[in-house]
Amino acid sequence: xxxxxxxxxxxxxxxxxxxxxxxxxxxxxxxxxxxxxxxxxxxxxxxxxxxxxxxxxxxxxxxxxxxxxxxxxxxxxxxxxxxxxxxxxxxxxxxxxxxxxxxxxxxxxxxxxxxxxxxxxxxxxxxxxxxxxxxxxxxxxxxxxxxxxxxxxxxx
Length: 156
Ligand SMILES: [Zn+2]
Known about the structure:
Shape: globular
Bound molecules: zinc ion
Radius of gyration: 16 Å
CATH topology: Aspartate Aminotransferase, domain 1
Strand content: 25-35%
Number of helices: 3
Order of helices and strands: EEHHEEEEEEH
């Protein structure tokens, strides 16, 4: 049995302290074991329909309006990472964006294809966006909630 983090002060939430020198991802713990993934945002955009690329940038802009983020691209998708955790991700498809938002509550909307509990207080909401029109006030509100999850802020 190994207890490497016994001395961690439980009153101070972990920040993203360590950047893997190989893949550039940030972690709460130094030398966090993980699979290095050197996928870049450019890898995701390359060869895609310009309309879908534009939709991606519109989505990223909306996430940026909600709060600070850094891209956390992996092969499966481009993640959006706040100070505390990754809170959203999208991949570019032929028709648009397929992605998810981590929300602190279950939002029963037909706009989400699938909702799965991640923890008792965190639900992964899967969506498909095919047009920038769909980034309306309702959707931007969800992005705002997800961003707060990413920053580790209280969400209600
Ligand atoms: Zn790595």
